[in-house]
Amino acid sequence: MERILAQIDDLVRKYYEDLFKKQNDGIDKIFLSEPAYDSREAIAAIRTILGGWISQGPNVKKFEAVFSGYTGRDIGIAVNSGSSANLLAIQAIKEVYGLKDGDEVIVPAATFSTVVMPLIQVGLTPVYVDVKRDTLNMDPAQVENAISDRTRVLMPVHTLAYPAEMPKLMEIAERNDLIVFEDCCEAHGSSIDGKRVGSFGEIATFSFFVAHNMTTGEGGMIVTNNEKLEKACRSLREFGRIAQKDPIKDRYYTDDVLKDFDRRYVFDRIGYNLRMTDITAAFGIEQLAKLDEMNEQRRSNASFLSERLMKEAGAFLDVPIEQAGYRHTYYTFPITLKENVPFTRREFAEHLEANKIETRPLFAGCLPDQPAFRGVPGRVVGELPNSRYLRDNLVFIGIHPGLKEKHLKYISDVILKYIKDKTEK
Fold first, then answer.
1. Distance CA 164, CA 384 (A)
2. Can you tell me the distance from the alpha carbon of 405 to that of 85, in angstroms, rounded to the nearest whole number?
3. pTM over 0.90
4. Stretch 222-244: mean pLDDT
5. pLDDT of amino acid 243
């Protein structure tokens, strides 16, 4: 059997070697993302399938340990998506800390939908605060203005992998006795003064969606040091099942109603089924081993575009910044049109798309403006001028490790020529 497995490994390696040799030297469409995996992830997944343990098992346990360790946390709980991670984390917070329906969670207005949807689904009220235009992250000054006697949770999002201002936000949270829940779904490996995002708050979430800095196709992770939150998350992840210690030595459960009942079929809360498979985890273990290298390539790519665009088009465009001590790992590369440029965001995006450069807006733009959020609980603090400006004037493009210098030069040439043509008329 081991000889056959070795032959399969060799064939898979050969397949990927030949695949990479056949890649086109020209400029094909420049996608927002291209999953950066090779024979190592494929072999790990195939060996898991052939090994016969394909649901949640030993690979999940290992992935939880290595990923939580990477972030600087003691505990990892693997799930089937980043959105599921957000749902379990906020439900666990509500249970462990005794939050009541209608209690408030402060969130950035410019963010993705499943930052806020789980809050509403568990009966909490999102409070939208404005972001800063240069960082795209929640403005600590606006957080101060948003706190009420119902505010219980502060939920910063590290937008597009740029770290939120966690030192200031943590100080505000501590002073106001708020629980800090970090959404790091796009920010694997980002850090502030060497401290990785996900290690500041009480609990944090990550996504391993195919477009992100590391991927398992679909998947997510919750990290924490809080054992009560861990217990709630693990139970909620698996149908609300009671804690499983040693199913052999501690097999039976007894209370006033149930007598000597198999613990594996005892449920003490209303839960879900949001588990990660061992195939997914095997893939993720290999991806994590490459994450720092892939992030360095993203940072190098972003540096190329930033320097060229700022030098030649800084009067028309804003591109990402990086404050001292803040390490950006560039999920994507955002470009914001400055006021009074002679073209619209739509025109700019359509020009890029026509030239094989894929684009997106900043997720939902200003979330409370979205149809789904207009008629549901929520509180808006101020006029959200920056979030609404970004809603109408920002596009992001790919910056993934698959891009080479020829692609970056092509992207910047397309952008600079467009601006030149528009401004010289």
1. 17
2. 36
3. yes
4. 96
5. 87
